[in-house]
Design brief:
Layout: H1 6-9, E1 17-18, H2 20-27, H3 31-41, E2 47-49, E3 53-57, H4 58-71, H5 77-86, H6 100-115, H7 119-154, H8 161-177, E4 188-192, H9 200-211, E5 216-218, H10 225-235, E6 239-243, H11 247-250, E7 262-266, E8 280-282, H12 285-292
Parallel strand pairs: 4-5, 4-6, 6-7, 7-8
Antiparallel strand pairs: 1-3, 2-3
Helix pairs in contact: 4-5, 6-7, 7-8, 7-9, 8-9, 9-12
């Protein structure tokens, strides 16, 4: 189902024309994104008015709606544009289709590279999976089980903390190595709870949303309460996600003061913490991407 807003689904007369700003509003993307799609993928308007002002027709809008729908399913923009322009079927292999047996086998390779303290090999494995399977399945099927097992080992006396640090840095480096493509104007604010140092899950969420064309603002780790409240009041984001991995960290978040946004809480720290009515809990990356795309 397309996630364009109600306005985009209203019937338009075939002869109607729209400005780039009006089309961007209907699709939920930035005008700059439309310009980029026009320049790079030939998805521009087909009508030009006197004075060289370009206008989109109803047919142009329908075509772009199909592109947005595919992109938000994880199809790269170039592939989505080709699919819509040629009428071909969408790619048979969509990002996220990672067989469990493959993930299990590659976790062993990942563990070997990490234990050898080989950051280049570790990063190459993660980049390869991100490129072929997308962020959601790479995280949920490859990286989360690997990190959970590694965390259990690090909790033991003399555990390999150096391996855990290398793995975290390697995952972030892999995310940064793959440009996510054009995104809409930043409308999702991502922040860690005060004193929360583990920002990796939000880095992953930011990349997963960017794959679907969703722009974000990341405040990173250890966001003081007053800074979070100020950021929400200043930007008035459509959605705000606050991550906490322990209950004591979650309780430091001033959730009652975050009223100018649709609030989401994520991480195991929120399981037993009461939150204001209307606050939504995100338990998996796939769930978060679906809710925020």
């Amino acid at each position: 189902m397309s996630r364009t807003g109600p306005a985009a689904r209203e019937a338009m007369p075939p002869e109607a024309v729209l400005t780039p700003a009006a089309v961007a509003s209907r699709l939920g993307v930035a005008v700059a994104t439309l310009r980029s799609w026009d320049r790079r993928h030939g998805l521009g308007p087909s009508s030009r008015e006197p004075g060289r002002h370009r206008r989109y027709t109803a047919g142009d809008l329908r075509r772009l709606e199909r592109v947005v729908h595919l992109v938000r399913q994880g199809v790269p923009v170039a592939s989505a544009a080709a699919t819509v322009s040629t009428g071909a079927a969408p790619p048979a292999t969509m990002p996220g289709e990672l067989p469990d047996r493959v993930a299990s086998r590659r976790r062993r390779s990942l563990r070997g590279a990490a234990e050898k303290l080989d950051p280049d090999a570790f990063r190459r494995i993660v980049v390869g999976f991100l490129d072929r399977h997308g962020t959601v399945d790479t995280w949920q099927k490859l990286l989360v089980p690997f990190l959970r097992e590694l965390g259990e080992r690090c909790a033991e006396p003399g555990g390999p903390v150096e391996v855990e640090h290398l793995a975290t840095d390697g995952i972030i480096a892999a995310l940064h190595a793959i440009p996510p493509g054009t995104t809409s104007a930043a409308s999702v604010l991502l922040a860690c709870a005060p004193d929360e140092q583990h920002s990796l899950p939000l880095e992953v969420l930011r990349h997963a949303l960017a794959e679907r064309g969703r722009g974000t603002i990341s405040l990173g780790a250890r966001v003081p309460p007053h800074s979070l409240v100020t950021a929400v009041a200043t930007r008035r984001p459509a959605a705000t996600v606050v991550w906490a991995h322990t209950e004591d960290l979650a309780r430091q978040v001033p959730v009652g003061e975050l009223t100018d946004t649709r609030l989401f809480v994520a991480g195991p720290g929120w399981e037993r913490v009461a939150v204001p009515t209307g606050t939504e809990r995100l338990r998996t990356l796939a769930e978060a991407v679906e809710a925020l795309s």
